[in-house]
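Annex B, item 7. Sequence and structure tokens for protein A, then protein B.
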Amino acid sequence: MLALLKPWRCCGDLIEHNVDWPTAFEKFLSTTTAKERQVLGGIDYYYDLKTACERNDGSDNVSGVAEQNSQRSTGCVNTFDETGEELEETSIVLTEADLQTFKHEQTSPRERAHALAAIAIGTSCGLFPIVSHEATIRTQCLRSATALDLNQLASWQTTMQHMIAQTTSKHHGTLTTSTTEHESGEVSQLQLADSGEANLLAVFAPDTSVLTPEKAEDLLEDQRRAYNIVDWHLQKMLSGLNPPQLRMIIPGEGGVGKSKTIQTITDNFVSRGAGSMLVKSAYTGIAASVIDGKTLHVIGMIPINGGKQSAVTMKVLEEYWIDKHYLIIDEISMVSREFFAKLSNIIGRARANRAMHTDDPFGGLNVILVGDFHQFPPVANKASAPLYWPSKPDKDSEMEILGRKLYEQFNTVVKLKTQVRVTDPDWVDLLQHVRHGSCKEHHLSTLRSLILTDQRCPATDFSTSPWKDAVLITPRHAVRMQWNLATAKSRAACYQISLLSCPTFNTIQGQPLSLQEKFCVAAKRNNNHGHNRQQWDGLPDEIELAIGVEVMVTFNISTDLDIANGARGHIVDIVLDPRENGNVIPGECTELLYPPAYVLVQMNRTKASTLNGLQPASAI
């Protein structure tokens, strides 16, 4: 503080000879101006809040912390004019507007600049059209929930739970315990108490984009080669000949038909009456749903928090894997060496009583790895995490070394090479060079010509297909938040529909947070740096909702029903909390006091059936 506020050129200007630093600081305090005292008070207050938030675990201590600091937040401070002269003592009271300013300032100026630039570019290209307010107002029936609505909601939730349980049992056996948490697909019961909890129900359109298998004879040459190896092994297994463990890899770039090959292999298992012998899985929920599988966390009953399986869990796993003989893991690039070894150990333990060779990977289970190591690497992991990374005994953990050794035992490889998704030869050439990081100048020129601000970029009508349904991919959180907000506002203005701003509704022991406690929570959110995503359910402090706005699932509710992280849909109805008493104005943004009672979302793809009370054209 002395170095910050006291003029100095050398250390002697800050502290006199034979005087310690605390004494020098106390002497400085006795001579400070009003402006310096206010700066010191602000810094002191900031670090008090920061320390309290770091120590607080989200429990009832927040209230105590807020009480200790409330005097500063609402107390008296000295004010000054431009000359630094003290004027008079006054009281500064923090308001909700101050809280919003505090939250806004948590985003760095650089991030805000990127967000504003992105919105400006999007607006100039017609992505956020400005619509005249003379447009016809659409009739909307946004209403508060009645007792009948709440009863209907409870009925829907019960039906969804039953549907999820039935689908899980039908496709994968009874593989559910409390250890799977978010992956288990549980739908929480309605809580209309003072918490103001919102419930999200998905309304489903007919499933029109599910991958369908090819006839074996219609497969491409490399696809057929992979198919024949698995088919030969399956026939030997069904004949009781106990073939050697199949440890197989099917690599290939995007668009070569890996998923189609998986579905054709699946169809072959079913046609031979061996569908129950095959388990399909992937690391993420959306990847698992594409192949009609489950996540790796679910099939291994691996807790999200990284804990160990209990004896009850292992018993369930033993029963589940007792009649399973094949495992397909898609998107293998996202599996780390450590996780690979952990999964192998868990399945090996579950199959310990039946494995002929206990030293074999995965307890002798036949495993087929599918994917492209040029695509997504293991999430939130170090650069050396992927399976292809050579082991370094002096740096790697025991599990990482084991994972690499297991991967090296996969000795049957069929690489898919024929590109079927991209047919333009120039683009195939460009994508191949991008894939290997070997782009030449003409490749870079082609890519740069597609930048929206580049003069060579062709004129594009973003209100037409397929651009109107395109997804913005950005590594910047601020850009994503501002883009979503601009899109919602534009759509609300275009169709004159109601845009609702839904704030979080945090409580302590059922009671709403005070303003000081809200400041503490906001500071804690910023200090977490994204590490406790599940604590906030992956949502921001406020989210804008409107009928027709596109949304994305951020947790694996049920991969069996294709309600998985990354699945998309759009809002078809919003029913407000019964306590909501404000007017909702079409075409304008209305800030709600409480989260909605429920939101109905029509998903783009699902396997769920219709719920009572919804339109016949949709299913839930």
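Protein B:
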Amino acid sequence: MRSRIRQLISLVMALAMFGLLAPTAQAQTTDPTFTVTGSGWGHMVGMSQYGARALALGGSSAAEITGFYYAGTTVRQTTEVVSNFMVTDPDPLWIGLLQNRTSYIFSVLGPGPVGLCKANDGEGECPTQFAVGGETWEFRALGGGVCQFFKAGIAVGNPGTCRGALTWDFAAGTKVFFPESGRTYARGIVRFRPVGEGFHVVLEIGMEPYLYGLGEVPSSWPTAALEAQAIAARTYALRQALRYGPEESLDVTRQATCWCQLFSTVADQAYVGWGKEAEVDGDRWVGAVNTSAGQIVTHPAAPDSTVIIAYYASSTGGHTDSNVEGLGHLTPLPYLVPTPDPWSVSAAAANPYANWTRTLTGSAIATAFGLETVTGVAVTKRNLSGTVAEVTIAGTLGGVPTTIVRGGRTFRDAFAMRSTAYSVSGGSGIGTAICDGVPPAAGFTDVSAGNVHYDGINCLAALGITKGTTATTFSPTLPVSRWQMAVFLIRTATALGMAIPAPVPQGFTDLGGMALSTVDAINQLKQLGITSGTTATTFSPNDSVSRWQMAHFLTRLFAAAGGTVPGGTSSFSDLTGLTPETVLAIGQLADLGITAGTAPSIFSPQAQVTREQMATFLTRLIRLL
């Protein structure tokens, strides 16, 4: 429970971020609803499977696809980079099928037999029993580390330890079916390994046979996309096997967890067994595995023989994340950098997750995060890729208005949403009441309290729209460049609760050398219809923003945020030579009260906008909304 002082601080932050005084629980009579609009599915790190599909349809090869999603990498043969158990052992992989079981039921498909083995049963060399086609058996823990095979509920043979195995001849057409999971396994050896009072169920298998059973993408997809998936999956499996080592070297923690190097679920990779090979077009997937046999993705900076961690997911929202932002890692990996990914959301991808929505109630959000009521939710910080870094939630706790901040992934996971590429709208809206009063001082040493723009600068700092040019300076009289204006406008739009699209390149050719976050803001600004650039292919990012350009930027942002733009009859006498659209925007800006000009009847349209003026203009716009 927060202290009273902390609650008051939270109240100030609530006003700063949301501009609403959250009512007490008793005063709230309706349950607000919030709409989450998102794009993509998965952690959005590394290769996008739908993006790979679109790239393949566009003519890219498997190596080109992996090279696009894994920066600075090269496709090489496994034998070129490793010479350990992964190439000397024909079945080096141990795949965790089921964990912590006390009973395991299986049926034999095909002629059989399936050899049954358990250690220390006193029956001699394994296998000591055999299950034939059509039979259903059970491997059961009896307690005390003892296990027994049962057929039709009757024990067969002597009990032994819970270290056992099922073996069969796939060439003869024999397979093993697990009724519980509905999976059929045709390749490898099923192993039982003891844990506690039960056992783990593990599949020992070779690399290529393992890949045959991966159910990650439809087998009907373009060949290059299938090959790229096979290469990425092989790389991921190899990296995990190198990480944990051979079965006999698994540490006690891994033995207790699964006695495996990889899980058969999306915790690692979705291994579905024989069903993948047997499905319609399954031969195309097997062919892609065979065509790419042994191929892996490498990077000179990657450990473990340069084998990368080949993360992949269904699709991005138009931009991949770094491993730090998407997965919460502490150390960035050089081959997993934020990258524009228009392919994931292109028409060619036919991605059913390119756009999705969720509706959440205030009460559901309150329950998830330990509040009494929730009145406002806003995305208040985004990563370089445009995915959500932070969500601020306003509501009440103990009858006192408060705010809490949660990570974008935490908010996603709380409601099982598809990705972190989302925006939130609804509720009481995202206001900025602190900018209507006296905002807290930002502490910039070069902005005095007597500066007419003081409140505006503090307002923007409180809302996170600007952080200054250094930690202690704002540089108020410097002109605002067009790239800076793009960043300020996108941050303002975010603070206002607008749905910000995932950045997609808009054809500007003059953005080289700019930070990725800046490029994204410029592209997003065009996507929102707030700018069209200085030409069809240029944005002129380093040019200073003139007052007439500012009029366009602000009136378009005001309209996009849901404001009603007035008629815009201008009384300024110095607008000769400007386009009618520009004259109208200047008049609208004046009618809104955002500017009265530089002097009576004078607007000075060609004058540069300074950083302090920009702060005042944006603050006035914010107050109108």
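Comment on protein B: Residues 1-27, 429-433 have pLDDT under 50 and may be disordered.
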